[in-house]
Amino acid sequence: MKLLEVVKTSDTSPQTISTLLTFGRELGKTTVECSDTPGFIVNRLLVPSLAEAVRMLERGVATVEDIDTAMRLGAGHPMGPLQLADYVASTQFSLFYRVGTRNTRVWSSSMFQK
Questions:
Q1: Per DSSP, which regions of 9-72 are E strands?
Q2: Closest Cα partner for 111 from 65, 68, 53, 38?
Q3: Residue 48: how many CA atoms within 13 Å on its side-chain side?
Q4: Strands (DSSP E) along 3-111, which ranges?
Q5: Which candidate, 60, 65, 9, places its Cα nearest to that of 33?
Q6: What are the tens digits of pLDDT across the range 3-55?
Q7: What's the CA gap between 79 and 65, in Å, rounded?
Q8: Angle CA(78)–CA(5)–CA(108) in degrees, nearest 5?
Q9: What is the C-alpha separation between 61 and 66, in angstroms, rounded?
Q10: How far apart, in Å, are the Cα atoms of 28 and each of 16, 24, 34, 112?
Q11: Pairing state of beta strands 3-8 and 30-35?
Q12: Residue from 3, 18, 113, 5 nearest 58 by CA
């Protein structure tokens, strides 16, 4: 991955953040800062989106191919959400389900409970 999320808490010193940002850039990463919040930046936005793609498939709204094509061409994503879900593995989503907040809007699909 090209991104490094540097997470700061109320106990993290500005020097530590600066050191981590520099270290990440030295590794060739693009760095971003965020507060300590569930999912940080990427997963907090990504996981609900992938869950919605699964629900759309489950409800027969569109096929896998059409959902992925729509997001690649319509939103400029390099791969569709279901292709990405396969890439990061369904076991990771199962883990999110078991240890997450069990937000019924996000995790209502029976596919996450298998």
A1: 30-35
A2: 53
A3: 12
A4: 3-8, 30-35
A5: 9
A6: 999 999 999 999 999 999 999 999 999 999 999 998 899 988 988 898 899 89
A7: 11
A8: 65
A9: 10
A10: 19, 7, 19, 35
A11: parallel
A12: 113
